[in-house]
Design goal:
The protein is of the alpha+beta class. The protein has a domain at about 10-85: HSP40/DNAj peptide-binding domain (Sandwich), CATH 2.60.260. The chain is about 20% helix and about 30% strand. It contains three helices and six strands, in the order E-E-H-E-E-E-E-H-H. The strands form two sheets. A four-stranded mixed β-sheet has the order 1-2-6-5. A two-stranded antiparallel ribbon has the order 3-4. Strand 1 and strand 2 form a beta hairpin. The longest helix has 13 residues, at about 90-100. It is elongated and about 55 Å long. It starts with 7 loop residues before the first strand and ends with a helix. The mean pLDDT is about 90.
Length: about 120
Amino acid sequence: VDAHEYFKREGNDVYCVIPVSIAQASLGGEILVPTVENKKVKVKIPAGTQNGKVLRLKNEGVPYLNTGSRRGDMYIEIVVDVPEKLSPKAKELLKDLSREIGEAESPDPVKLKDL
């Protein structure tokens, strides 16, 4: 089986990376995710989703041989797409949001020690 542009296969399970916007990761929502069967599955992104979170879609992987309808699972890694260029207004809005939610200007040393 040839390698696929978007999917990585391990046994009957399939893995892929799906980008979401900062707003989608923060607020939550629904996205359509392509599957190996060339269909689109609606996936709920929970509010507060962190970069690197992995979601499992049961039975959306590769079919097992000689087992009828049994399939592997599909795992999607969420990657938060941070914009590289922002307008001055967008920068100001993000600064306002940062202050509103109480973000620290530098990383929290308590969280860094877990790295």
